[in-house]
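Cross-check.
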Amino acid sequence: RGKFQFAIDRGGTFTDIYAKCPGGKSRVMKLLSVDPSNYPDAPREGIRRILEEQFHIDYIRMGTTVATNALLERKGERMALVITQGFRDLLHIGNQSRPKIFDLQIKVPDVLYEDIVEVEERIILHQERCSLNINSDVLNKLRKNLDALLKKGIKSLAVVLMHSYTCADHEVRVGEIAMEMGFTQVSLSSKVMSMVKLVPRGFTGELENFKNIFSCVDAYLTPSIQKYLAGFQSGFDENLKNIKLLFMQSDGGLTPVDRFNGSRAMLSGPAGGVVGYAMTSHNDQPVIGFDMGGTSTDVSRYNGQYEHVFESTSAGVTIQAPQLDINTVAAGGGSMLFFRSGMFVVGPQSAGAHPGPTCYRKGGPLTVTDANLCLGRLLPEYFPKIFGTSENLALDESATRTAFEALTVDVNEFMSSANKSHEPLSVEQVAMGFIRVANESMCRPIRALTQAKGHDTSRHVLSCFGGAGGQHACAIARSLGMTKVFIHKYSGILSAYGMALADVVHEAQESAACHFKQENISWLDSRVAHLSNQCLQELKSQGFSEKRIELEVYLNLRYDRTDCALMCSPVAAKSGNFSKYGDFLTTFTNRYHSEFGFTIPGRTVIVDDIRVRGVGKSGVSVHKNEPTSDGKNQAKSVQPEAVSAKCGYGFQDTSVYLFENLSPGHKIVGSAIIIDKNSTILVEPDCIADVTTDGTPCDISITIGGGKVNQVGTELDSIQLSIFSHRFMSIAEQMGRILQRTAISTNIKERLDFSCALFGPDGGLVSNAPHIPVHLGAMQEAVQYQMRELGDQIKEGDCILSNHPLAGGSHLPDLTVITPVFTPEHETPIFFLANRGHHADIGGTTPGSMPPHSTSIKQEGAVFKSFKLVRNGEFQEKGEISLVKNHFFLSKINYFFCQKSIIFFGIHLVNELVETYGLNVVQAYMAHIQSNAEVAVRNLLRDVASLNAQDYMDDGSMIKLRIDIDAEKGSAIFDFSGTSPMVLNNLNAPKAITLSAIIYCLRCMVGYDVPLNQGCLTPVNIRIPKWSILDPEETAAVVGGNVLTSQRIVDVIMKAFKTCAASQGCMNNITFGDDEVGYYETVAGGAGAGPTWHGRSGIHTHMTNTRITDPEILERRYPVILEKFQLNPGTGGGGEYSGGDGVIRQMLFRKDLVLSVLTERRVFAPYGLDGGQPGKTGNNLLLRHNGPTINLGGKNSVEVHPGDVFRLLTPGGGGFGSPTPSTGEPPTKQRKVKDD
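Predicted model, tokenized:
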């Protein structure tokens, strides 16, 4: 029709533009996303360069990182939060876990809102209708508070009220009042995403049925998007009037510009790439999308339908909205390169678009792009000349070479100091080393996306795109066992091209909260019909005929008394009474079994939500007929002589081809480089690239050959060390992901109170996916105990259950399953695998198995030292299990099946690694990895002098520590002589707890990522007095030692090193229950301040990092009402840097229960350092219904009745440093944690 059609992906580094021109030709362009000296806006500039006059445009489709960047940089609109009274700080606290467990300076992005208004309202579940309706007095008070916001200039609100997903009356009324008063943007969480969970619903939102309804993210981000769009449109005549401007959403669908909003924009660009490869690459085999850009790499999976998730976290904000399941790893072309303590490290820091890599001529750091340039994989003469001050220069190869030469000197100096016979590495070997490490880091999320979900990675096709992906595709496919790589003609801009192919999508969703039973089917069908009509009318209003609209119906289903819901589409109903839309239950049970390994027959299924996805089909054709090669016209290299490029096997003579000169039918044998205008493709040796002839023009299909196998020896190689570090950690991570997916327990699935680890043949820790720090050293002790106790009785196919403190246990609820790994050639285990998870109830004198007054381990639950749960591969459900006289055991059999299956999955991964490298090499690198951790700790210890410190438990027991440092050797003696004897309560800590605390503290103080293993303890000699509180005798009670004493050990170590002030020093263990229900939680407090930072408020610290149950889930599953969960201002210690505040958590009980509290820091306050003030102590209060208020003390168990209220006040963190004038220099500290 004589008009241009544009599809644009504005990424973090580059903006990609695909234009379909009049006459059917296509044009592509790549620009730097940020280049202020040459143009104000990259998408507009790209369109300007392709066009001369605006009226030739048919449509513009675009994806953008504007929302993501605004969220990351916190540059959104001024806004306020309106929330149920008692929850003013809920979004600050979030799930109470810290993002990086070894960062003492806890960095959590700031909340989005500027002010808070609390509303005196409450909705109580399990009643016929809403109660506690808002009265006129409350409304008058609300108006007064809202008026104060308007006077501050705040006109944007997010309204988040408890249980509004099921009863929205209160939110609607608040919204009406706000609009009447003049607020321009109002968010109602119930109109945004009507799903249970208050925290993510509070963060999330979308533009719904009428204008000016936004949620927290949208109220913050949408104005930024609108400002950007206004600026973009203003550069065109008449602001693009009558031009179709569509934006890509995170769910893979397009939406008109006036409906584009913040929460649906977070994956706008990557979603285009998923659509692109799904439409162009998928045939009979499932496809892995590999999108390597300048800043990061996105991986995803497609097998006939898009895989969505409904809750994700971005920039510290939990978003509850449909998003494509895209996993991101911080390794892209711009990822920075480091050499630390003998290891090659890639990322996560990125050079971005400005300054960019060293070769961009802006003084940037060395990156992956520089490594490819150094190796001859990028040819400057064929790379866009868009660099330098005038934007007309090629890549600066000389600057890259100079920087790598300097880095190579550092590498060789370190290696020579460690090994005198070390042969120096060349510049190219160093660059190649970083490429190999980057490739392995990008393989990790692909393994997680496939193996951890039960898919065979090798059966997938790797669809490679993104500007940097083609240089790495062959190597990554070979590492993953894949045999085919597909690279589309527009691989360099596939995200933009995907937007040209995408459909327009509109979704409607509402809460159902009903049982999936026959009597509810007709009601569910009527609601589906209502939502379907909404989608139809919306898409019709955008110009789609009904024939071009497809409707997808979903029910969000879960088993009763579980929290894991699955969004299920129907299959065709064979017979019986089904919904007219199909059979949803079969889909649910099949998916549940596929994902979790079991179903729960007889359990009621709940419908949480109804969702309809309306798709307006774009009708864009992917294929086009073009001439094919006759087979005689072979592809010709554009170079008169082959260039020399390093491909992992040394330098190879490499032919160079221009993509534009290739025709279908051409065959290219590696080593070769194919140059496109927007990407470079490396065809490695033993790989063959075919230009396709199946109707898809000029796409490239690469067959991956076996290749030359680089023999890896047992001697230390820094590059291979980094690769094995990724592989070992990947095994532990994948075991952890599967355990979380398959577990029914809230403690595992929601609170993440578990750990998985890999151990060497000596039982020493090799890698640990760190969820819970208190498990770190303890699991190693558990494995080594079994080796000593059972010896040659450990056989292949055994699974050993253990929880006894003497056997390396932490406390009895933490059950550990240990399995040996054998090979046919070895009679002794070559490795061990283990996982440890917290169980809510394993018996004992109180519900929850956390008795506050226990004096003997027998009072704390079932005890296992070396119990063979599985013998010779057979689960011992009968026979030995019948000897266990404890009611809890049989109820845990399903969970033990989960733990057992996770272990055997881990064995498969270990054997896969052995098959690749050989047993001797894998075991050698286990030792090398441990030595590397040892080097990092020795370097730390050389910087400090001898130290000492002591602190007290609330019962007066002292923990005393002297640390003698040998600076020359970088070693230390941690001597706990003088520590109090074991006590007749449960604060006794098994020896393994102290080992975990020391590993944790050393890892924190190193200050950068090092392999977490037993090597951390090699430079340390630990002396603990026998039968002290840190090494009690076998029958001592220990339940409090794991959760309380462990925190005090950390406080003492940090005090000795003067690293930071004390954090809350407690996990605040709360349990309640009866014969029918049991609940356990640990609660956040204040973090200690440090030499350069304030302590975080309302966060879990040090030896725990478990999440808190969402308030709406808590009230839905348990007989309590959470009346308050907020910060307790002023409880953090003052100082130059203030400690974090503790929290107030208040629960109203609705039936007779037993409440138990097990807490510390109720007597001795968390200390401050260098003149900083201590944090406030905590308190546990019981407010009897129509009765007195009772101080429960730090440890107690009491019966509670309907109407009773428990009020928990957790401790604050200590301050650091005396207050100094703002112009003064901070006082000198003994040492600071090293900063990346």
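DSSP finds 25 helices and 52 strands in the chain. The longest helix spans residues 718-742. Passed to J.P. for a second look.
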